[in-house]
Amino acid sequence: MRQTRPPRGSRRGTPQVRLRAGFVVIAMVLSVFGARLVQLQGVDPNSYAAMAAAEGLVEVDLPAERGDILDRNGKALADSVDGLMIVADPLMTAEKAPEIARFLYRELDVDYATTLNRLREEGSRYEYIARRVPATKANQVIAAAEKAKYKGLYTQHDPLRDYPVGDVAANLVGFLGTDEPLAGLERTFDDQLSGTDGSARYEVGAGNRIPLGENTVTDPVDGQDLQTTIDLDLQWYTQRVLRQTVQAAGGDSGFAVVMDTRTGEILAEADHPTFDANFPTESPKADLGSRALQDVYEPGSVEKVLTLSALIDLGLMTPRTQLVVPPSLQREDSPIGDWFDHGTIRLTLAGVLAKSSNIGTVLAADHFKAGQLHEYLSRFGLGQRTDIGVRGETDGLLPAPGEWTHQMQDRIAFGQSLSVNGVQMAAAVNTIANGGVRVSPSLIMGSATTDEGDVVGTDTTTERRVISEEAARQTMLMMERVVDPEAGVAPGAAVPGYRVAGKTGTAQAVGEECACYDGTFTVSFAGFAPADDPKFTVYVVVKNPRNGGGGGSVAGPAFSKIMAYALKRYAVPPTGTRPSRLPVEW
Amino acid sequence: MSSPVPQIRSRVPRIAEEAFERARLTVVPRRRTRAARMPFVALVSMVLVGGVVGLLLFNTSMQQASFAATALEGQSTTLAARQQMLEMELDRLRDPQRIAGAAQRLGMVQACAPAFIKLGSGEVVGEPCPAVASPFPIWPAEPKLPPELNPAPNVVEVTADPVVTRDDSADTAAGDAANGARDGRKNQQHQQSQQNHQR
Known about the structure:
The complex is a heterodimer of chains A (586) and B (199).
Chain A: H1 15-43, H2 45-54, E1 57-62, E2 69-70, E3 76-81, E4 83-88, H3 90-93, H4 97-108, H5 112-119, E5 127-134, H6 135-147, E6 153-157, E7 160-162, H7 170-173, H8 184-188, H9 190-194, E8 198-205, E9 208-209, E10 215-218, E11 226-227, H10 232-249, E12 253-260, E13 266-272, H11 291-294, H12 304-313, E14 322-325, E15 329-330, E16 335-336, E17 345-348, H13 349-354, H14 358-365, H15 372-379, H16 406-413, H17 422-433, E18 437-439, E19 448-449, E20 455-456, E21 463-465, H18 469-480, E22 501-510, E23 517-529, E24 536-543, H19 551-569
Parallel strand pairs in A: 2-11
Antiparallel strand pairs in A: 1-8, 2-3, 3-7, 4-5, 4-6, 8-9, 8-10, 12-13, 12-24, 14-17, 15-16, 18-21, 19-20, 22-23, 23-24
Helix pairs in contact in A: 4-5, 10-19, 12-18, 14-16
Chain B: H1 4-11, H2 17-23, H3 37-93, H4 96-105, E1 116-117, E2 124-125, H5 173-178, H6 180-198
Antiparallel strand pairs in B: 1-2
């Protein structure tokens, strides 16, 4: 194309020259940028990233709230409260340490001398003053400290676990350590209770979040509540009655189980001695668990109920079957005696149970064919964990069929030579109450997964028939004779106005050191009421009473009180039918 | 510009010259129309100013919202903590232990086994009985302290004159109680030195 006009202002040079000059300038600038980029990213990127992050970027943990542990009515056995720890910076507090220490002593009831030392700690910039203070209280204290111009005190998140009922159900609920659950349901169901912590990253200017600044929030997932089948008020009453009973008898320890007959829900499971979940370190380690589930013991005569009900179920005997009971019975290795001296007496099967005769039971058990008693006892749930969600539960000890000998069967028939745990035995007696159907006990409402991966709770309740309904009814009628003032051995267990069926137990206990019967006893009473339409099964056990009492005189009255309270609390009227009049002698 | 036209004219027959002449293209004189610049400039500046001011206002309001959010978040935390405190207090108030204690202070006693009145017939079911006061310890047992927390008492036999010198100030009274054993030893030494002086 022909140049029509000469370029204006020739000083700019030709476009090619200008373009080249421009490219050179751009290249120079870009290489400066490039060099800077290499410097920033290549040489030491982390320090620059840290510097950038420090510039107003805040990262906070959003702690998940721990789920509560509730009783069956939603009352808290353990709950979480937003807590703070109060921390001091001794560099700032040392100057006014005595005043601040006095102030903190007044406000928080901390130890004056210890606090004073901490406030003056040399070379430290971080000292705990008080931990797990409720947030409201901690903020009040800090505000008051600021008002009084005390510097160097600040707070940090420190969630607080509160057990509002102290020692009530502490044996089941367990407790938390400084950072983790250490015992009981707290530990077993920690996954469900703890939830997942979240976090937030955002930029802050003058204490406020900068809008449009970096802002990432991962919401915390709060822990879920765990509802138990425990009835808080009944649990409290059971614990107090149990303690009174154990102390009055001079016993070492004891436990009591209250069970809903139809559903197998455990309404109360008391242990004595127990501990205050708010201050677990103040009690000996041995008291921090649940003896009803973690200890084994020989059930003694309570077990006769299971033996005799099996005989009736097999059609081998009836409550009126007549037995001649000699004063002593010589068996393979040793003579078997009764708890009371007698000559040769004539008892019915009901009388054997009412008078709790070992000899009578052994004679009756001779009718079993090999393996039958074992079969029945394992169907009653002995020798197997109840798996209600309490950690460290013992299996109990039911000799395997291979080890089962005839002389062992003699002793097992009246409750020695086999071991059980408390809830196992309560569930076995409850089978009689529930018309011969064993309903598996449960402690958790709904369902929950333990730390071992087992799903437990009322949703997983299983039922299985162990003896026929008629056999269960016959056994119940025999058990009613136990609390009869004339025929039975435990009139103290009666609940006035109600029909009560029960059985005492006084078993020789195995000592820890000698692994033999050490002369101490385990006394117990298991029963249910109203006998002809049972609502509750109560089982009370006292270990090593020193007042010479047996199951009837020690555990019986405790059974009566607990049962009366449960019947009153759930407004169960007496059935109004006539109690059993089965003959005990002939 | 005028040179090509005669050449064409020479080649074209002069039959329709008039029409041809009429159809000839001529350069139209360039008309310069100047659009008014003011409205456009005004519009652009308005958009610009409006945008900047709007952005500023938007930013300010965001900033305000952020202040409000921070304040409300603080308030919400405080209120949540307060709610939890109150719930804790409620749980403590309905602790069966506390209720039983209050009942006992009012002179209430344990009831015996329940009896029922059928409202229709007035019939009494069960055996009614009067409630009698029986000792029922309701307070939790003092824990049996583990040995670490329950050291054997440090008994110091003091054989000294009954001279009491109290130079402790009231402030350290609490400390005295806590460090009883240690103080006991200190007093002993103190008193022994006094004895030495007297001798």
